[in-house]
User: What shape does this take?
Amino acid sequence: MELGELLYKGKAKSIYKSEKDDELISCFRDDMTAFNGEKKDCFSGKGAYNASVSAFFFNYLEKNGVKTHFVKMLDERTMVVKKLQMIPLEVIARNVAAGSIVKKLPFKEGQILNPPVIITDYKDDERGDPSVNDDLILALGLLTSSELKEVKETTLRINKLLYDFFDELGMVLVDFKIEFGRYKNGIILGDEISMDSMRLWDRETKESFDKDVYRYNKGNVMSAYGKVVEKIEGWKKEHLK
Ligand code: 5GP
Assistant: This one.
């Protein structure tokens, strides 16, 4: 399948037209950015790591009854996806307090959040992705109230599936960000699920295996991402014989 016209170039992915009207091609680049693009670098192989982890989780979620946009991989960094009408919301699930929630509210870093907390940010770089509550989501016409309920329930389901998965690998899924879009008559999971969009800690040492390694110069980000890929490959060998 050939890449069609470039439709959109995000911070880490480029989206192309495909031969089919209802599909797109998502190419995971090696670019890495943080702090709304203020910090920028390129790490060879990073796109392939994130693409493979995203593909794995989309498959894993589908097997567990969660609908996603994933169709198939074209090569190690290129994915065919269903064409969604994206909803401009970042839906964040948090199991442990870290990152912006610790800066904005009186939580201690590492504090367990049980039940998990869902936060919704309006996707708008120029406005700094402001948090929006349920009333604002409805007032902005981003979702209907039944869609909002569905998005939150699906997010909690995804959170439980991913949390339990990483728990088996000895890691804590601290938080993650997902995005949804409309497809035919429903709302399904789009975008990506990768180390760029989650916080993942070693259960014992609390070492980070995610973009915080890059954001806060905590070490070699490629070896951190590589560890996650390695652990998932190990899990596959055990479970997908
Ligand atoms: P925080 O609100 O603490 O900055 O982020 C919460 C979680 O959502 C983290 O796992 C973070 O990586 C993810 N996240 C928040 N905003 C973005 C974003 O714009 N892009 C990506 N890839 N992940 C994000």
Remarks:
- The two ends are 29 Å apart (CA to CA).
- The first helix runs from residue 46 to 63.
- Residues 17 and 120 are 29 Å apart (CA to CA).
